[in-house]
Amino acid sequence: MVNQTTAELRNVTKRFGAITAAQGLNLAIFPGEFLSFLGPSGCGKTTALRMLAGFEQASEGDILIDGEVVNGVPPYQRPVNMVFQQYALFPHMDVARNVAYGLNQRRPRLARADIDAKVAQALDMVRLSGFAGRRIWEMSGGQQQRVALARAIVNEPKILLLDEPMAALDKKLRHDMQIELKSLQRELGITFVLVTHDQEEALSMSDRVCIMHRGRIAQIGTPEELYDQPQSRYVADFIGRSNFLPARALGHDGGQLLAEGPGGLRFVARAGGRAAGDGAVTLSLRPEEVRVAREDAAGEGHEMRVTHRIFLGEHVEYHLRSAALDHLVAVVPRSEDIAGGMPGVGAAVRVAWRDGAALALAED
Amino acid sequence: MRLYALAVYLFLYIPIGVIALFSFNAGRHAAQFSGFSLQWYGKTLANPFVVGAFKTSFTVAISSALLATLFGTLAAVALQGVRGRLRLLYDALVYVALMVPGIVIGIATLIALVTVFDTLNPFLATLTGPDNPFQLGLGKGSLIAAHGLFTMALVIIIVRARLQGMDRSLLEASADLGAPPMRSFLQITLPQIAPAVMAGFLLAFTFSFDDFIIAFFVAGSETTLPIYVFSSIRRGVTPEINVIGTLVMAASLISLITAQVIMRRRSH
Hints:
The complex is a heterodimer. By secondary structure, chain A is an alpha+beta fold. Chain A contains nine helices and 20 strands. Helices cover 79% and strands 0% of the residues of chain B. Chain B is mainly α.
């Protein structure tokens, strides 16, 4: 059979003493894909990356790179390279020698001219052509990161591993770097595996995102899938924002689920994840799915009162309350807000949502 | 308070200053300054006993410092891999080696060496023949061994501090880029700890060069510079003693300051 995956985790568990950092990970990474491990600190995402790099060995299960089991293979024999969180550039070497480091480790040795050419090409790729002779401490944080990137990609790894590479950059630079990284990945066609706790970073760059929760994979999917069809309350909460309402399932109607929420409110919800059965469910309702109209406007809806109105530029956030719903967040685009007459704090409004806007999830 | 501090410093440094001053004395009495002259420097350096003692001290100091630096550095690197209680034990032993009074180390080393020599020498005599047999004895070798062991603790502590301050991810990066452990050590660790190794060497050298107490016990028939000073002082303080004191002090200060400068240089 033709080998289809760049890397695979098969039932991988990692324990550090009594602590289980990663449990039963099953994952296939495909050639040329940009995959992110996303989760809060301590969720096992860094452990997963370090097991791919070879810095940690799995306690159980198999790790495959390019179709071969690499259990027990040390980092220096794996065809992967890593961009470290604090870059880990060698301070006693200039930029060019840092970038050439990996090439200089090859046995049999590469020709001097080949190494120089590859280094120049890699530096050019990260737009640092004039910086070959610079010392590391003369470079800004963003430049250092590009050196770290060049030092890794110059080896043409099967997988480029990135451990929170943007964590040390300021916000503006981070955004530029995300775009740059994504285009670099398209250009090189190398598989990128990124670890991050920043959902925006994961969603904006990745082909697929693997959301981790307490050492396990909570859900893997494209950013759109994760946002539209979260399989659990954890994922719905982690990706974007959501209102969570306790409800009781009344019955099915095709793919839809009829549910009764707080105060007898009826919802026609999509059935997500394991929420197939009847009984208690949690409804996830995205703030942008909540429509807010002034009380005197035409139409129907649940009557609520505005407790906070937060102006955020391109959209406005309303915090609402009624006898039935303790707290509901709605996000209204600025233009709609103006058209709707901008209800202020204390104003009575009618809120509504279309059928299928809410997603029914099994209680966690 | 300031007055006390001043008094303490005066008490500490005036005698040293006096020695340095009197080394330039023109007269032949150590207690009476009768004009500025370099004549005693000339006379001291022409004295074959002084030169011989200096050569012995220098050889011992260089050899013991080299050994201490080599083994101390290796020990410090190896200790990085030791964790838990065993690490605590090693750490304690290293610090104890520095805290034990010189006189105890001197006596202990002497007894240990003599015991070993007495055990080995009959055996060596049978091996090398009864005529002119090869025998172990006190001398430069035992001086180097005693100083080397003691100063190794210094080197371990200095190099360890540097190793602990080193970013662990540098070694991971090196491994990630394809360098096996030995090459990572030579290409990354060694350049990173080089200043500490150099400083450790200078401190070890200074210690050995200055040491009197341990040397006194294990020197055998050898005379190091401090031992020479000690034995000549019994015949009274001559300007020659002042010259030797001043020169030793200058040499020690220079190497200590150099060690400090190397250690404090920006860490890259």
